[in-house]
Amino acid sequence: METIGLFGGTFDPIHIGHLRAAAEVRRRTRLDRILFIPSYRPPHKATGGTAPAADRLRMVEIACRRRAGFEASPIEVEVRGKSYSIRTLGHVRRLRPEARLFFIVGIDAFLDIGTWHEYEKVLAECFFLVTGRPGFDLERARGVLGGRLRSSIGTLEEAGDLAGAAPPRSRVILTGIRALDVSSTAVRDRVRRGRSLEGLVPRGVAAYIREHQLYRGR
Ligand code: ATP
Question: For residue 111, how many C-alpha atoms fall within 13 Å in the half-sphere facing its CB?
Fold first, then answer.
């Protein structure tokens, strides 16, 4: 069965923390591909200072170039309006009705899942791969869901073959990867202070930020 990871985010900008996390997830899960989906207007974040969606998408495209199995997806940017996971899921499902879909989310984002639009429906309709992030204990994910859903959390080993004929045994799969301590906030901050982005974003992304003078005045 085809397996697709959906990695959503503001990607303002995309950085090596995102890329390393996705690469580790793909290495460990053997997902066929991962779609990086920049949000048009992130519902959970203040939108005032966000770089234009077209720029964020372009940087994701640059970062995915020559990285096997990684693809930039314009779904949310093209749909415009609020970016809701349930809508994005429906969209991908229509394009790839046979595929098994996995949302990839960092533990920081997963801890907020109770605030997501129709989150129980999202949980019912796809699988989650929750990744670690420095400063966050992955085990905290177990405390987020109540009732019936609590028993559907497990480790990657417990989930079994993600591409097998039978569905994975856990709906929310804890993926203990080694995450890098990098954030978009730190990247924007360095641009503002005129510091180098070497080692924090791919070279092509650093060049794009320079050429388009992003993140200078904020
Ligand atoms: P900001 O600093 O602006 O809040 P961010 O660096 O957290 O941004 P987002 O685009 O908001 O990046 O994150 C998108 C997804 O990537 C989220 O699921 C988040 O948990 C995950 N993520 C972000 N940075 C890392 C990292 N260094 N390691 C692992 N996952 C990450």
Answer: 12
